[in-house]
Amino acid sequence: MLEVGTKFNVEEKLWEGPEIKPLFNPNVSLGQVIIRMLSMHGPKVAQISDDFGVQTTFNEILIKTIRAAQNLLKMNIPSKSVCGFFASNSPDLSPILFASMCLGCPVSALDPTFGKSELKSIISITKPKVFFCDVNLYDLLEAVLNELNIAATIFTFTGQRRKSMPIETLFAETNTESDFLPIELNGEKETAVIAASYGICGTLEGICLSHTLILDKSTRLSSIGGGDVLLAFSSIYWLSGIANLLKATYYGATRIITTKSYSPEYLLEIIEKYKITHIFASLQQINSALKHENIESIDLSSVKSVALSSRRVPHVDYATIRKFFKNAVPYNMFGLSELGGAISVSRGFQLTLNAYGKLMNGIKVKIVDGNGNRLLVGERGRIFVKSDYYFNGYYGKSGIDAIVDKENFLKTGDVGYFDVDGYLHVLGRESDMIQYENVQIAPEEIETVLHQHSAIKSACVVGVNNLVTALIVRNANASISEEEVCTLIAGNFADSYKLRGGVFFVSELPATQSGKIIRRLAKGIAEKEFESHSNAS
After folding, report:
1. What angle do CA 103, 106, 111 make, to 5 degrees?
2. What is the edge-to-edge ordering of all strands in the sheet holding 107-110?
3. Quick one: which of 352, 316, 302 has its CA closest to 332?
4. N or C: which end of the chain has fewer CB within 10 A?
5. Where is the domain boundary, 163, 184, 211?
6. What is the rounded distance in angstroms from the CA atom of residue 69 to the CA atom of residue 59?
7. Residue 42 lies in a domain
8. CA 517 to CA 526: how far, in whole Å?
9. Which residues are 394's β-sheet partners?
């Protein structure tokens, strides 16, 4: 079970999660743990590539990891230098990622769906001198590196292109494989992953996550065992993609990997074909699969857990998940990139409570008002978090003083409160709050009501000129008018929550690959719609 629970210290006005010792020594590196676990699980099947039709054992990944690390050093790729990844989940990705970690090289990953502007934004921060790239993405990566005037060695998966070196060159025998040891480093101080995220500050940053932090966050799910089969469509750009890979490696489970994009049909096919036991997916992905015309004939009985990357799970969606995943426990998490993942977790029936569950192991939270005074149960304020392990700052920048208070609590940028049962309620980002006539309005409260309407597929509420404004995507063949939406909100909220900025129907909302709505882009759409309608009237 997940190590979660909330205890309220009345005197200190502090909420605390359980205190459970870490699985591994905090001073070790990811590379040391990975080599040990690969050796331990040896002949078991570590991964199955559905599209390549290749099964790989832990032993096979181990030998490739060692050879890749040794050959990188022979090629004068220095240890602890940033390694860039621009690749999908192909069979040889895991040993190359592990080799980088064994050399203490911070990993800076890019999602294979990214275009030129996204690549330039991230690469200009981390400036890797070596890249591991899918061969079909080589031309795009080369063009971006040339524009940024960055000289980098590029290795390509599944082929060779112009100046690239095929990844197979790194798997050449060295005859010293048995002598290999990962480099020694300080797990808490050295960076393992540089996660590109808008995070707390709202600007794109390279968030430096230590070996200790990644180890701690990715080992907090003890229900996974050697007989389990894991599935996540996430690339290693997403922390969920890295966590899925590491969990399987720690516990000797089998991952099903694919370079194909998500589709409802494909998700259901893989679950039934490989008897998947643990799934990580967005709520949107799960919902679309459960609405598939053949869902009633699909055997989903093997699934034990469904981890959802969603802000909130409406009652109707929870009921549908429980209907079809009869043996599974659904999970939802609230987290921060700066803390490497989840702060709190809700599971099972808790998803219907409109909250984000209870605190994870080692987490402490205080809720404060605008003057920094700590608040009590039920009182809304700014959420501050303290963790056993912190991130190592933003890449290329010094210190984290701007986002940590004098008590060493991290400023999350979110607004919320705890209820009497210790459940954390997150109302949204402080920067997303809509200030109307001295009333602070949380967009997610309104969105929760909108999402419960059968005609609404997705919705995003933003402030336009301090007026509450809704963008809505209708379900196929469904009908709902602006007047009906306004009536729905007026019937559930106080006068200040009325949709005075308007209701605008759109074909889609801007979202990440995992399905999370990109609110800043949605606000831009709403502002244009508002201006257009204002001019027309």
Report:
1. 125
2. 165-166, 153-157, 130-134, 83-86, 107-110, 191-197, 205-210
3. 352
4. C
5. 211
6. 15
7. no
8. 14
9. 207
Two structure tokens written together for 206:
């390279």
DSSP conformational letter for 4: B
E strands, 419-493, in order: 424-429, 434-436, 439-441, 456-464, 467-474
pLDDT for residue 452 is more than 90: no
Domain boundary among 211, 229, 262: 211
- Copy the structure tokens of residue 194: 């540089």
Query: Which residues are 208's β-sheet partners?
Result: 194
Tens-place pLDDT, residues 167-218: 999 999 999 999 999 999 999 999 999 999 877 777 788 999 999 999 988 8
The count of structural domains within the chain is 2
- DSSP β-ladder status, 329-336 and 305-308: parallel
Residue 397 falls within a domain, yes or no?
no
Alpha helices in 83-131 (DSSP H): 93-102, 116-126
β strands within 285-438, DSSP E: 305-308, 329-336, 341-347, 358-359, 363-368, 381-387, 410-418, 424-429, 434-436
pLDDT score, position 1: 45
Please give the residue range of the domain that contains residue 169.
58-211
d(CA 210, CA 248): 20
Asked if residue 112 is part of any domain, the answer here is: yes
Listed residue (198, 206, 189) closest to 126, CA to CA? 206
Q: What is the DSSP string of 63-75?
A: HHHHHHHHHHHHT
Angular region, 338: left φ>0, alpha ψ -120 to 50, beta rest: alpha
Report residue 17 as tokens: 């999660």
CA distance 258 to 105: 25
Structure tokens given for 70? 């040794």
- 119 in any annotated domain: yes
Q: What is the pLDDT of residues 213-270, one digit of tens each?
A: 999 888 875 688 889 999 999 999 999 899 999 999 999 999 999 999 888 999 999 9
CATH number at residue 178: 3.40.50.12780
Position 287, amino acid:
N
| Geometric angle at alpha carbon 330, from 324 and 335, rounded to 5° | 150
Burial class of residue 476 in the structure, from the number of CB atoms within 10 Å of its CB (0-12 exposed, 13-18 middle, 19+ buried): exposed
